[in-house]
Amino acid sequence: MIILRYALKTAFNSIWREKWINFLTILSVSIGLSILCSFIIVSRNTDSVVQRWAKSFGMVVYLDKKTDTGREDSLRKYFQRDADIVEVKYISRDQALDEVKHTLGANSLILEGIDENPLPASLELTLKSDLLDPGLAGKKAAQIKQMQGVEEVQYGEKWLSSLYAISKAMKMGTLFFGCAVFAAITFITFSTIKIFFYRRKDEIETLKLLGATKIFIRLPFLMEGIFIGLIGGIISVALISAASSFASLKIVEFMPSMKSNLISLPLSAYIEIPLAGAFLSVAGSFIAVGKIRY
Amino acid sequence: MILFDEVTKTYDREVVFKDISFSMGRGEFAFLTGPSGAGKTTLLKLIYGAERPDSGQIVVSDWIVSKMKQNAIPSLRQNVGVVFQDFKLLDNKTVFDNIALALTIHKKHPHEIRERVNAVLREINLIHKANISPPYLSGGEQQRVVVARAMVARPIVLLADEPTGNLDDDNSEVVMKLFREINARGTTVLIATHNEGLFRKTGNRVFYINNKYIEKEMVA
């Protein structure tokens, strides 16, 4: 407790004495963490779009016009038993024609010259979100296409591939930037604490000669690191919170439908980001102080 | 209390001591003398673990210093007070804080630190300068602060390296009086000096170090 008290006092004295270099370090840490928070927000929103789309992700299985009702029924039952399929909806040829007429509205007159219904019956399959992977979806589609009575399978292949690529890129980007930001914060704090360590070299030498233990010498520097990371983290979440609220307001102004879909930082991030900042800074400080030899 | 048994120390293949042996008892007051460069400071450094011998054994109280691991050195130094030739006072701290630091390292309670530092400041007649930084003190006053810092933790052994080297006769007398008082409380005191006037007619043992050996051991 006495050592902790001494360490806190020494750390705060140093922070005050070296206020400008500490201010710049805190600013750098908060900028780094803010960039990371921005990536987390963008990634979460992209993921949310993908997940929303995944809920309605489906395949349309067009049946051969020659397929009899019995086969249609057995196919429907087969898909209903399939663990990858959440829902199966049968659209008869007549229902399909009605839907087209309904969609065309006043323009449905163009269909009047056609004697026979050209549309096939179909099965609309809602798939599990696990199948959002274009590879898995393609494999499933190819498998269904092989089945007797199936003429065509459609599932928005390009759209799925693009969305999947964006989602994956965002996740990779967040991971990459996360690692880069973490390394940068550790390095920034390392450099600052190293400077302080050299400036106080004589003092450390005296402490060693008076019998100070390694923890007694290290603790003030680690405390300083914790303070830098913690304050940097708090500033970054405050900045990001304000910026994302402002951005949400502006987006809703132009696209009111987006109101309930925008996602900000998770609540846990308000604790996790400052703690991550403190942890990384303390790691940087620990490396900066290095091995103490008597 | 302090035992050197056939201790050899070299620096870059140059022998400083060769197989030197001597011992000091608990509560003894002794001097270490010899010409400049004879190795007085090195010998003191070997006692508080700032240097390692090449061979031989060094024992200080219960610590076998020659075999000591890095992690054990702080406990030795907390019990061996040192008055450094170059003071090693911290300019960014007050006189009070410089002395208090030794007790903070000993994890003493702030209330006890305050009482003991004030007592020692009164003893060295510098209580009125408690809140002043060392650069604003005279050489004699700084030396007294260093002695106060070494004695406040009530060490088992007190080492002093040329403690009067920068002082006039009056200040030297004050500092030597402080050492006598510390010794009277049971602390073993070893003073390295080349000033013969300090130990003449004191009746204390004097180790004369020269040419890699303790050439003479006499009673002043």
- DSSP summary: helix tally of chain A: 9
Q: What's the architecture of chain B in CATH terms?
A: 3-Layer(aba) Sandwich
Helices and strands of chain A, in order, run as HHEHEHEHEHHHH
Sheet of most strands of chain A:
4 strands, antiparallel
Strand order in the sheet with the most strands of chain B: 6-7-8-3-9-10
Strand segment count of chain B = 10
CATH class of chain B: Alpha Beta
Strand content of chain B: 25-35%
**Biggest chain pair interface:** A-B, 20 and 28 residues
Strand line-up across the major sheet of chain A: 2-3-1-4
Q: What are the low-pLDDT stretches of chain B, counting only 5+ consecutive residues below 50?
A: none
CATH domain fold name of chain B: Rossmann fold
Amino- and carboxy-terminal Cα gap of chain B: 21 Å
By DSSP (H or I, 4+ residues per run), the number of helices of chain B equals: 7
Structural class given helices, strands, pairing of chain B? alpha/beta
Strand content of chain A: 5-15%
Order of helices and strands of chain B: EEEHEEHEHHHEHEHEE
